[in-house]
Amino acid sequence: MVLATINPATGVREDEFEAHDAAEIERRVEQAAQAHLELRVTGFEDRARWTRRAAELLEGDAEDTARMITVEMGKPIAQSRAEVYKCAKTLRFYADHAAEFLADEHLANPSAVNASQAFARYHPIGVVLAVMPWNYPLWQVVRFAAPGLMAGNACLLKHASNVPRSAIYLDTLFERAGFPAGALNTLLIGARDVEAVIADRRVAAVTLTGSEPAGRSVAAAAGRSIKKTVLELGGSDPFIVMPSADLEAAAETAVRARVANNGQSCIAGKRFIVHTDVHDDFLRLFVKHMADLTVGDPLDEATDVGPLATRGGRDELAELVDDAVAKGATVLVGGFTPDRPGWFYQPTVVTGLTSEMRLVGEEAFGPVASVYRAQDRQDAVRIANQTTFGLSSAVWSNDRDEQDWFVSALDAGAVFLNGMTVSYPELPFGGIKDSGFGRELAAVGIREFCNLKTVWRA
């Protein structure tokens, strides 16, 4: 098996790598197991020093690494650069806060359990396998690895097969920073090899960010081995606009929410649900801003939207739009594949959607926005909650009572009020329903892969 870097802006194969054979997989899994034994007895101070050094290395490599990301998966170079710095910020966040997040939790009244002292202590769980996607090739890994390593776990990385350069870069980053060899080991393997790694007794848990089918497969394999799993899967996030909203700000933000990362983000606003009183005004602004976007070479600083990461992803997105149009939907802008090399799709706005259209129930992973008219807030929530996903959401309203009502009514792992969904290391991140389970980031993210051990002292 060969893993290749194919530039999505040109379709040209830039590089290729042979997959690891069984002997190399065994060596790397064992090395990770040994690294964990060393890490679990190191203190937070040592781990924090190495983690901060990893942040410094990332920043020092920023320009080369940003170009690597853009060539591998096509996002505009400015966004690739921002991804690198976000990773560095997150590494420093966990270096600064891990000891606090994993401090002993003492029972205030131990006599209630007939003890002189009772507390819960967090211990690392062991080797954690991460199955990661291509859309944020560094960030998705770092948001798992930073808390994992700071907790004392070791990490195995099975990255997406179309970003092997990013996988190999991450394979060396943490050892360069001072961590024991194998603290984060990359496995250059295909999807068919993942189940065997999950079943390995040296692997304690698994986390996956990716598609719903991949999540079901990994969760089933982990379940057979009785291993902890965290899943962050797809999303079809609603972006709700109510009459009290600042429409210009909402429309400008809606465009960024839809086309960031070339529209290939699980937490992107994808379904724009607009109250009938402001629907036409919002739509006019939204369509204008979408039409004004510059589509082009992602290495050009002036480009707003680059290519889709894969030909298959571009073709699937086009099929969703074509299916909706064939069943009566209206395309207000875009809706076509530009006549140029690479896997581009024009930023698109679709209205007139009905339940039999695939675009209503499936995730559009690219710069395609679906717009719905809502009669009132109950209707807006009905539309928002009608999909099987529940990752994040955004609500634009300047009515505080209405904001609180939406926070309670929406089926989602997060609600962003008068803004777009963005992941921050300080905030818990994750979804419900078919968007997965468990949480990443913040304090809960580092605790997900720890053994919470109860201690009772007479």
From TrEMBL:
This protein's UniProt keywords: NADP, Oxidoreductase
PROSITE patterns: ALDEHYDE_DEHYDR_CYS
Keyword NADP in record: yes
Keyword NADP: yes
Ranges of residues in domain Aldehyde dehydrogenase: 4-455
Domain of life: Bacteria
Pfam annotation, one family: Aldedh
Family annotation (PANTHER family): SUCCINATE SEMIALDEHYDE DEHYDROGENASE [NAD(P)+] SAD (PTHR43217)
Family to which this protein belongs: Belongs to the aldehyde dehydrogenase family.
Protein name in UniProt: NADP-dependent succinic semialdehyde dehydrogenase
Species for this entry: Phytohabitans kaempferiae
